[in-house]
């Protein structure tokens, strides 16, 4: 059983969840075995690691539906210690299909119980629906990526409310591991102000590492590559390496 399961969550789209999940998983997989679970029907973590969603027989959907076990849903990646449970297109129907099932919020937790990896990272969809609830119910920790923009804190109240509710019921042990500022642009005069605001709100839960806006991070998924494979000397790669160190020390 994995000793730590981290969900990367924010119901806003485009804030850097997938970029964080993929590159954090890859960096941590230099030292330990990591299982990355793509729980977003868009499948960006899957394609970002070079897999074609259309040609994958089973993944997180089949796992949630109880059609396959974890071994059959997992794919080896180019990186020896990084394993992926991909997203397939049928995941889009999962929210609706799960609704009437018993223990509908615990499907992922049960499916992941047999994982041999000590660390699992879950890339969540941009919603607070049943898929995200499955992720939160299965997790020991969560990481919230926050985009450095004017409305950065908007929607976070709702997210933290959901987390509070999950703690009160589905998963009393869920902890906020940290909040990471993404797409930080020094040249934008607002950025420093947004950072101060997020710091003020989250205190020492805010990771010291700030992920800069970096074109290498945006390019990498197009090559089906992590930022380390694409350009390991880029600012983006260095940021995610530094974030991985912080995450490892908080675990
Ligand atoms: N630090 C960054 N610098 C530049 N582009 C980024 C950065 N982080 C993410 N992106 C790009 O922004 C878009 C949204 O990021 P993504 O990680 O997919 O967000 P989410 O999973 O929250 O929807 C993607 O095209 C991604 O490549
Ligand atoms: Mg995503």
Overview of the molecule:
It contains twelve helices and seven strands. With 251 residues, the protein is an alpha/beta fold. The chain has a single domain, classed as Rossmann fold (3-Layer(aba) Sandwich), CATH 3.40.50. A seven-stranded mixed beta sheet has the order 3-4-2-5-1-6-7, with helices on both faces. The longest helix is centred in the C-terminal third of the chain and has 16 residues. Bound molecules: adenosine-5'-diphosphate (ADP) and magnesium ion. Adenosine-5'-diphosphate binds next to helix 1 and helix 10.
Instruction: List the uncertain runs.
Output: none
- How many structurally independent domains? 1
Q: What separation lies between the terminal Cα atoms? A: 16 Å
Class per helix and strand makeup? alpha/beta
Helicity level, as a percent range?
Answer: 25-40%
Strand order of the largest sheet: 3-4-2-5-1-6-7
Give the ligands present. adenosine-5'-diphosphate, magnesium ion
Chart the SSEs and their pairings.
Layout lengths: L3 E5 L8 H12 L5 E5 L5 H5 L11 H5 L5 H4 L1 E2 L5 E4 L8 H5 L8 H6 L6 E5 L6 H9 L2 E7 L8 H12 L7 E8 L6 H14 L12 H5 L7 H5 L3 H16 L1
Parallel strand pairs: 1-5, 1-6, 2-4, 2-5, 6-7
Antiparallel strand pairs: 3-4
Helix pairs in contact: 1-12
The structure holds adenosine-5'-diphosphate and magnesium ion (MG).
Summary, kept brief:
39% of the residues lie in helices and 14% in strands.
Supply the key terms.
251 residues; Rossmann fold; 7-stranded mixed beta sheet; 12 helices; binds magnesium ion
């Amino acid at each position: 059983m994995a000793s730590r399961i981290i969900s990367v969550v924010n119901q806003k789209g485009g804030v850097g969840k997938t970029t964080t999940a993929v590159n954090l998983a890859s960096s941590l997989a230099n030292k330990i075995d990591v299982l990355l679970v793509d729980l977003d029907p868009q499948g960006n973590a899957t394609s970002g690691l070079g897999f074609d969603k259309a040609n994958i027989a089973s993944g997180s959907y089949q796992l949630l539906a109880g059609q396959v076990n974890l071994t059959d849903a997992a794919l080896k990646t180019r990186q020896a210690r990084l394993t992926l449970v991909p997203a397939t297109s049928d995941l889009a129907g999962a929210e609706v299909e799960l609704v009437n099932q018993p223990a509908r919020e615990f499907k992922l937790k049960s499916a992941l119980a047999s994982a041999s990896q000590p660390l699992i990272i879950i890339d969540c969809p941009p919603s607070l629906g049943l898929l995200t609830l499955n992720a939160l119910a299965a997790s020991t920790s969560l990481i919230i990526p926050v985009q450095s923009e004017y409305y950065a804190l908007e929607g976070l109240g709702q997210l933290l409310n959901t987390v509070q509710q999950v703690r009160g019921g589905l998963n009393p042990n869920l902890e906020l591991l940290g909040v990471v500022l993404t797409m930080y642009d020094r040249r934008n005069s607002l950025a420093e102000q947004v950072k101060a605001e997020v710091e003020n709100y989250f205190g020492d839960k805010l990771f010291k590492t700030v992920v800069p806006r970096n074109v290498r991070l945006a390019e990498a998924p197009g090559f089906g590559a992590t930022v380390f494979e694409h350009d390991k000397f880029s600012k983006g790669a260095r940021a995610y390496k530094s974030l991985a160190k912080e995450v490892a020390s908080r675990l």
